Amino acid sequence: MSELLEDVESLPEEEPLFQSSGTVFEIKSSDGHPVLRMIGIFVFVICGLGLANGLDFISPESGLVRPHEWINGMAQGAEFDSAEFEGTVYSEGEPLVNATVILERKNADGILGVPFTTQTDSNGQFEFSGATPGLTSIEITRMNEDGQHDAVRHRLILNPPSFFEAKGYTSIDFDIPPTESFSDVDCTGNYSDGSCLRIISYFDEEMEFPLIDESAAGLYIMAGWAMIGLSLIASGFAFVGIKKSSRGMIQTSCVLVFFTAGHYWSACLFSTMAFALTFTVPRKSIILDA
């Protein structure tokens, strides 16, 4: 048997099938740079600003920025005659007919002019066209047969036009207390017909919170919930961006949190800065051996 094996040629030594040439490949990656993590942490903090702003919006009576200030601020740049105003006057639960309604009027220079005046109809309703948006005042008078007429005065804010409308629309209802509530109020004026006016002013109690359209207040709260939602979604993108050092995730978070505004537009400002910083981070080099 051994003699047969001696005649068999030995197996050749194994030669390498592949040998590295020493060449390396460099690939540029948009992700993975450690600086992106730092920017992601910055964006995560900005999401907190947007969240705080949203919480402020859904607490209109205790927030840092209230709907009254928000609406009045938007009205500052509106046309002086771009508000439409309507409402209904009630007394003891019933519409008040033929009540006199006087609304403050301002001209294009913001100077007080001759006020608007109208009467309520058979349903207690009134309307004004071409009023000035923003903070204003109204006086409603009930005419009594004995000549001692009753009036109430209110501070209110008229809505400015929205982005999609040429006019701002406001609807507010009013209630005049019963005649007995005016019995202790001095009747002043002594007009030529012998009549006088008993006035109850709500200016002091409405100094901080003037009357506003309830639908406008509702939109303000809805905007707050939208900001909270965007902040949470943006923080999720920021978290993933931090974990993976992902430029795209961090940039997406910047865009989303921009629309949460933040107090005094802080989220808008800082998110824009963070978004710009992502473009200054160089792409990471990945070396592959050939």
Q: What does this protein look like?
A:
With about 290 residues, the protein is of the alpha+beta class. It folds into 2 domains: about 30-60 and about 220-280, no CATH class; about 65-210, Sandwich (Immunoglobulin-like). It contains 6 helices and 13 strands. The protein has helices at about 1-5, 35-55, 65-75, 215-245, 245-260, 265-280, and strands spanning about 25-30, 85-90, 95, 100-105, 115-120, 125-130, 135-140, 150-160, 170, 175, 185-190, 195-200, 285-290. A 6-stranded mixed β-sheet has the order 5-4-7-8-12-11. α2 packs antiparallel against α4. The longest helix has about 30 residues, at about 215-245. About 30% of the residues are buried. The model has no long low-confidence stretch (mean pLDDT about 85).
In the CATH classification, which architecture of the largest domain applies? Sandwich
Strand order in the sheet with the most strands: 5-4-7-8-12-11
Give the proportion of residues in helices: 25-40%
Any idea what the CATH superfamily of the largest domain is called? Answer: Immunoglobulins
Structural class: alpha+beta
SSE string = HEHHEEEEEEEEEEEHHHE
Low-confidence stretches: none
Beta-strand residue fraction: 15-25%
Shape: rod-shaped
By CATH reckoning, the class of the largest domain would read Mainly Beta
Q: Main sheet, how many strands, which sense, barrel?
A: 6 strands, mixed
* Number of self-contained structural domains: 2
What's the average pLDDT?
87
Descriptive tags:
Immunoglobulin-like; six-stranded mixed β-sheet; single chain; alpha+beta; 6 helices
